[in-house]
Amino acid sequence: MTIILDAMGGDNAPRSVVAGAVSAVRELPDVDVVLVGRESDIAACLTDCGAENEPRIRIRHAPDVITMEDDPATACRVKKDASMTVALTMLKNGEGDAVVSAGSTGALLTGATLIVKRIRGIRRAAMGPVLPNGGKGVLLMDSGANVECTPEYLLQFAFMGSFYAEHMLGIERPRVALLNVGAEDTKGGELQKAAFALLREASDAGRICFIGNAEGSDLFTGKMDVLVADGFAGNVMLKTVEGAAKFMFSLLKGVFYASTKNKLAALVIKNDLAGMKAMLDPSEIGGTPMLGITKPVVKAHGSSDDRAIYGAIRQAVACVHADVAGAIERNIEYMKLNGKGE
Amino acid sequence: MTIILDAMGGDNAPRSVVAGAVSAVRELPDVDVVLVGRESDIAACLTDCGAENEPRIRIRHAPDVITMEDDPATACRVKKDASMTVALTMLKNGEGDAVVSAGSTGALLTGATLIVKRIRGIRRAAMGPVLPNGGKGVLLMDSGANVECTPEYLLQFAFMGSFYAEHMLGIERPRVALLNVGAEDTKGGELQKAAFALLREASDAGRICFIGNAEGSDLFTGKMDVLVADGFAGNVMLKTVEGAAKFMFSLLKGVFYASTKNKLAALVIKNDLAGMKAMLDPSEIGGTPMLGITKPVVKAHGSSDDRAIYGAIRQAVACVHADVAGAIERNIEYMKLNGKGE
Questions:
Q1: Residues of A in contact with B245 (CB under 8 A)
Q2: Do B111 and B247 belong together in one domain?
Q3: Contact, B22 vs B16, CB < 8 A?
Q4: How many angstroms away from the CA of A196 is the closest CA of chain B?
Q5: Looking at the domain assignment, is residue A339 inside a domain?
Q6: Is B334 a domain residue?
Q7: Which residues neighbour A177 within 8 Å (Cβ) at sequence distance 6 or greater?
Q8: Which residues of A touch B67 (CB under 8 A)?
Q9: Domain extent for A203
Q10: Same domain, A19 and A161
Q11: Residues A143 and A65 in one domain
């Protein structure tokens, strides 16, 4: 299997991307990597990692870079020689099995849609990160790809999320909930009310397992496997979780440094605490899959270090093995409700 | 000063409401309390607290109760003898200075609008809880009162939030941000783009201090004092913070109970940790003010215990002293932008 890496994407590129790639070929059997980007920069990073002769890593030169300043809607169209554009084009052409990028989310989404294409019948691709809940996690669909949604998009997110949870997280009959401002069936705005009706109908037909509305606080309770949301609310939720985790660890650090006796106590629980932090750490959880695209495209966090890139590569490998895109493609007819949700 | 309490609202009513009222009159000078609800139930709770002869607590009998099953839109209209309806009517009639209720949020909002009335010129009342950020906190406007908003509502939320932050949190020129999916000026859907333009205009005119878009993760960074959001996204953020805090403390508990040595270490930092928990605890922070109503109405959390009720009473007292409603009322003309935002 070959994973194509956008070597120039992310705050710490190309260094962290190259280091993550080196970890991947060393730790994962049968995984080759192509690093796409400025050849000389990548080669220098490979040398730094002592991996200049690693046979399972190749470089594909791409002189240009898509930055956060580029317009996401047109970046891949305008910058044909950018690492991201070249990586996605290689995926389209079958020169690899999945793409991982820590570059601009918007550009990657537009590029994936434009170059690799959406699965026929899918209205919008969505970003589905897995959020920690103490168990197998909750897939949040969508988390920011689609700021404005229709009820039909949300129904498709529920289906795609269910396939992902089944094939990637190993959950039989994943429980789907709709993000809302209250648990009662009648809550929310027009979007939520209409989406609720579609989800209920799909559930009554036995096609998904819809458990009703969920509030922000329900995310961590283990009551659902897939949480369906418009990309605006989903993004607010995702980033609030990230910010809250960071904030609470900073408060905890304050407690640990408050006195000498606290410092000693902190030393005792240090390892167990690191395990807790890892559980909440996006870099351990991996990247975010773009569901609805014909082939696996995984977005790594912009601030990814080498472990985070490695996590995203591991996730891309799992996506290829599980053939999530194929599962969605084969089930397009199954996802239709009497002409609705098409 | 007299605070009117809906004694029957909340999961632990009337016990926790009565106990909170007893704390209030014992700890706060010059505060009288009227407990509104079933006289015999309230009297029994007062006896349990050893406060049956407390001269600064009165009971106003109201035989009916608004429950979570009642339609929030009509509850106060239909149940004229419910504790919440009677409490709001007393406030309107000048038989007290503020109302505190832990009952149905929707019913309280509709009731306050219907009975106590919105300030003339205010389009929608909003719920503005103060979220912890390690400093003076962030006022989140709106957090669920208005699921669907117009850009003009959001501009008014910014003004009302600024007045609250100034008068209640003691912040001069409060920094206002707009909740969005990215920091760039062009982010978001139609609502955010239009609201951004109005907020920018008000800021350029020197009337508020708008610092631009903020993401979910920015909540805890201390960069803003007021965060403006539609009630749907705001509610998702608020409840996600609540859920995340609860989840992380449960993980932490797991770490502390993992071994005997951890348990001993936990004992050492116990007190400092309690301080951290209190900082994140909604009951310590107080209730949520409903801004835009002619007189102070404070919503306490449904699960409030006596300390949380006491916190909400303290906040209501501060609202009366600071005359936030008056500040909004006096500034209605100031909030208008050439006929926009009216």
A1: 244, 248
A2: no
A3: no
A4: 15
A5: no
A6: no
A7: A210, A211, A212, A213, A214, A218, A223, A224, A226, A227, A228
A8: none
A9: 127-284
A10: no
A11: no
Answer yes or no: are the C-beta atoms of A149 and A158 closer than 8 Å: no
Residue B336 lies in a domain: no
- Number of Cβ within 10 Å of residue B318's Cβ equals 18
Is there a single domain that holds both residue B280 and residue B296? no
Identify residue A8 by its one-letter amino acid code.
M
How far off is chain A from B200, nearest CA to CA, in Å? 21
The answer to whether the CB of B110 falls within 8 A of the CB of B73 is: yes
Are both B98 and B151 inside the same structural domain? Answer: no
Option in A236, A244, A265 nearest B265 (CB): A265
Contact state of B239 with A217 under an 8 Å Cβ cutoff: yes
Note down pLDDT in tens along chain B; length 342 residues.
999 999 999 999 999 999 999 999 999 999 999 999 999 999 999 999 999 999 999 999 999 999 988 998 999 999 999 999 999 999 999 999 999 999 999 999 999 999 999 999 999 999 999 999 988 999 999 999 999 999 999 999 999 999 999 999 999 999 999 999 999 898 999 999 999 999 999 999 999 999 999 999 999 999 999 999 999 999 999 999 999 999 999 999 999 998 999 999 889 988 888 888 877 765 566 789 999 999 999 999 888 999 999 999 999 999 999 999 999 999 999 998 865 544
Of the candidates A233, A245, A272, the beta carbon closest to that of B236 is on A233
Å between A125 CA and nearest CA of chain B: 17
Whether residue A159 sits in one domain with residue A229: yes
The complex scores an ipTM of 0.93
The residue behind tokens 């699921």 is B147
Q: How many helices (H) and strands (E) does chain A have?
A: 12, 12
State whether A174 and A226 are in the same domain: yes
Q: The domain that contains B141 carries what CATH number?
A: 3.40.718.10
Q: Is residue A337 part of a domain?
A: no
Q: Total domain count for chain B? A: 2
